[in-house]
């Protein structure tokens, strides 16, 4: 019988190793390590310790997604816009890689309201949320030997993407005793000729701070001047843009785009409370055209040609969402967040093992310091969060996940009743583990 006939399958040579077939593929360990850096990965590890016998509801104080709570429901204008886009049958097609023109024009107009110059649709690229935007920018910047300056504490997805892109990470400190301002001297000392960019997150995740942006106080201006001095661009993560409820109003980094070029990352996710819609953008704030001259804009658009893009019907809804959402909706969300931040501050400052360096002024989370010296049987912040989940069914993100060991990131964007319940359980846990005098 001929080999390969229909009556008998073809015979293949097998390479044997220790009596077993030898395969020539394997998983990418680097991918596994990068995944372990993510908020999702760490929260999963903690959640795995929940006690199934505990009949109380699990309270999530470790993730910035308040969409399940009625008080945080998005505006009907956004819902109607999505329905209208679908029913129009105009958005069932593929979209251009950088996004459909009406959506990009609307984002440009929306952002221009807070800038001293006007953006054009060509200054905007749409992305599948902020994660995609981070991936695009860092991949484009990841030249051989390049490094990037990231805040500590910060958002760990930057580290994960940088690791996969072989982009070296260097951390500059945010100073808790100074309202989480940037340590500019430390930042400048980290940079060299291979530094390509710095990241500024405003309003702050995970710290809950809002950087002062006026020309008198000048912290953001100083960041821009430092970037110009170093010859690097600024990546402005403004996912929580406008969610400011303290003494400092939100000022976009793009205001200082004439000093140093800025790539702004924004989304619908937080301000409209629709993280699952996965609609974000990269905006080029660069009146001097530096990013165009050095090929960054072209590289971003080229990358998007081979990447995923947001669902076209969501893009189709963007103009109506941005142009018709009323100030009443935004003010309602700010009011709810203000109340939640006050509850969080009031409850946590009563717990002896927790120190509150700075009351939250924006975003949806806050960093607090853990004093292990007054606790018995708690090794570090990860151990604290793991045992808290097991004993109290409360999930909090350990500070090590965002770059500060033995700190905690507490998310307060939930309804008052479960927020008080969850923080009350944290207090009970701390009192139970307090060292006896």
TrEMBL record:
Coiled coil regions, renumbered to chain: none
InterPro entries: Aminotransferase_I/II_large, PyrdxlP-dep_Trfase, PyrdxlP-dep_Trfase_major, PyrdxlP-dep_Trfase_small, TyrNic_aminoTrfase
Residues covered by the Aminotransferase class I/classII large domain: 77-415
Keywords: Pyridoxal phosphate
Location of region: Disordered: 1-27
Residues recorded as bearing N6-(pyridoxal phosphate)lysine in the entry: 270
Any single Pfam family the record assigns to this protein: Aminotran_1_2
SUPFAM superfamilies, per the entry: PLP-dependent transferases
Top-level taxon in the UniProt lineage: Eukaryota
Biased composition (Basic and acidic residues): 1-20
Cofactor dependency: pyridoxal 5'-phosphate
PANTHER family noted in UniProt: TYROSINE AMINOTRANSFERASE, TYROSINE AMINOTRANSFERASE-LIKE
Homology family: Belongs to the class-I pyridoxal-phosphate-dependent aminotransferase family.
Protein name: Aminotransferase class I/classII large domain-containing protein
Source organism (scientific name): Ilex paraguariensis
